[in-house]
Design goal:
The protein is an alpha/beta fold and 290 residues long. It has six helices and 17 strands. The strands form four sheets. An eight-stranded mixed beta sheet has the order 1-16-17-15-12-9-10-11. The radius of gyration is 19 Å and the shape is globular.
Length: 290
C-alpha cells in the first residue's frame, strides 16, 4: 500500500461502525466510509468531540449536523510541498480534498523536479486542484480540467492561497473526454497526465461518464497526448472497487506497450493516529518513463 503519512494538519482519529472520525486543522468531523465494516471504536471518548457529523439518508445522500459553530471554510496545509487548501463541508459529505492523494502529489512533484526540464501537465477530472498545485509547485505548466465551474473556481482559490497565483496554470471547465479529443486534433502534448475519473458522472452538457465503459478508451486517447519525452501517467480509482492490478493492466496495454517505461499500481491509504489501523482509499496506477 502507498500510505500517505506526511500530513500534520489532517489525521484520522478513529474508525468504527461505518464511519471515520477525522481532524482537519483542528476541526473534527464524522463521515461515512463503506470500508469501515467493524463496530468497535478504538478511542470511544474521542467521538463526542466531533464538531460535525454527516448522517446518511436511507433514500440516498444525507445531511450535516453541526454541533459547534464552524467557519464557512478554513485553510489546511500539506506541509511536505507547502500547499494550502480551503476546506469546507459539502452537501455530498466531501470536504474539498482527498488527503490520501498526498502520496501521489509527492511522487509526481519529485519526478518533475528531478527532470530538470520544462514539463507540461494535463490534470483531468481535477476537482479542487491538489495534483495541479503539486505539479505547479514543481515548476510545471498545468492545464486543469473539470466539468464543474464551482470546483474550478475553488481550485483557482487554492492556487492563490498557496502563493502561486502567478504560476502558469490554465483552468478549464469542460467535459474531460471532449477536451482530450480537441487536444489531439490541435496536436498538443504533455509530459505528464493525471486522471481522477468518477465511477459515474455528467459533463456540463449532460454527457454521461461510466468508468468501466470509458476508462480503457480514455487512457488510449490520452496516451496520444504524451510528448516525445514524457515523464509520467497517473490514474486514480476511488469508488468502483477496481483492483490495483486492473489499473496496472490498463497501463501495460496502453502507455507501456507504446512507450516502454515502468508500471506500478497499489492501494492508497491513510493511517489512523495512535493505532495500527489503516484506511484503504482506493487504488492508483502509475506509469513513468524510467
Amino acid at each position: 500500500m502507498w500510505l500517505c503519512d506526511s500530513w500534520k494538519e489532517y489525521q484520522i482519529l478513529d474508525l468504527a461502525g461505518g464511519d471515520k472520525l477525522e481532524e482537519w486543522n483542528g476541526v473534527r468531523v464524522v463521515r461515512p466510509d463503506p470500508q469501515v465494516i467493524w463496530e468497535k471504536r478504538s478511542f470511544p471518548k474521542l467521538w463526542a468531540s466531533a464538531d460535525g457529523v454527516y448522517h446518511r439518508s436511507r433514500s440516498g445522500g444525507g445531511s450535516w449536523e453541526f454541533r459547534t459553530s464552524l467557519p464557512e471554510r478554513w485553510p489546511l496545509t500539506f506541509e511536505p510541498l507547502n500547499l494550502t487548501f480551503h476546506i469546507k463541508p459539502t452537501g455530498f459529505k466531501h470536504m474539498g480534498l482527498f488527503p490520501e492523494q498526498g502520496v501521489n502529489w509527492e511522487w509526481m512533484h519529485k519526478l518533475i523536479k528531478d527532470s530538470h526540464r520544462p514539463a507540461r501537465v494535463l490534470n483531468l477530472f481535477a476537482y479542487t486542484g491538489g495534483a495541479t498545485l503539486a505539479a505547479a509547485a514543481a515548476g510545471a505548466q498545468v492545464v486543469h480540467v473539470d466539468s464543474s465551474k464551482g470546483v474550478v473556481t475553488w481550485a483557482k482559490e487554492n492556487l492563490t492561497l498557496s502563493g502561486m497565483a502567478d504560476r502558469p496554470v490554465r483552468f478549464i471547465a469542460d467535459d474531460a473526454i471532449k477536451f482530450v479529443e480537441r487536444e489531439i486534433r490541435r496536436g498538443n502534448h504533455y509530459e505528464g497526465i493525471i486522471m481522477d475519473p468518477p465511477s459515474y458522472g455528467r459533463g456540463p452538457g449532460g454527457e454521461v461518464f461510466k468508468l468501466e465503459k470509458e476508462l480503457h478508451n480514455l487512457i488510449e486517447r490520452c496516451a496520444l497526448l504524451l510528448s516525445d519525452e514524457p515523464l509520467f501517467f497517473l490514474i486514480n480509482s476511488y469508488t468502483t472497487g477496481l483492483a490495483p492490478s486492473v489499473l496496472s493492466n490498463l497501463l501495460h496495454l496502453t502507455v507501456q506497450k507504446k512507450r516502454g517505461g515502468k508500471v506500478s499500481a497499489d492501494e492508497v491509504g491513510l493511517p489512523v493516529a495512535g493505532s495500527k489501523l489503516v484506511l484503504p482509499c482506493g487504488a492508483s496506477g502509475r506509469w513513468q518513463v524510467k
